[in-house]
Amino acid sequence: MARNKMKKYKFSDEVMAKDAIISLVFGIVAFLCILFAVVYAFIMHGNAPDTVGSVLLAGLVSDITALIFAFLAFKDTEGGVLGKRAAFTVVLVNAALLVAIYML
Fold it and tell me: Residue 42's CB: how many other CB atoms inside 10 A?
C-alpha cells in the first residue's frame, strides 16, 4: 500500500529537433558577439576599433544562420515545440538588438 503512494516521476520522451539545437547554438554565439561588441564599445567610450564592427558582422551572419535553422526546425515533425520556439525567440532577440545598434 505504501508503494502506491510514492511519487513516480515521468520523463518526457520528446527529443529536441537537431535543427533547433543548431539554431540555439548559433543564436547564443550571435548574442555573445553582440554583447562583446556593445560592452567593448562602452569601455572604449565609443572609440572602438574596426574589429568591433567585424565582430558585429560575425554576429549578424551567425544570427542569419540561426534563423535558417530555426525555420528548418519548424518544418521538422520530430522534436518538441518548446525547443523550436526558444530557438526562434533567441533569433528574434538578436535581430532586434542588431537593428537597435544599427539605428543608434
Answer: 10
CA distance 81 to 79: 7
> pLDDT by residue (tens digit) across 39-48?
999 999 988 8
Matching residue, cell 520556439: 85
- Please give the average per-residue pLDDT across 45-52, as a whole number: 88
pTM score, two decimals?
Answer: 0.81
Number of helices (H) and strands (E) in the chain: give both, helices first: 4, 0
Cα separation, 54 vs 44, whole angstroms: 16
Contacts of 102 (CB under 8 A, 6+ apart): none
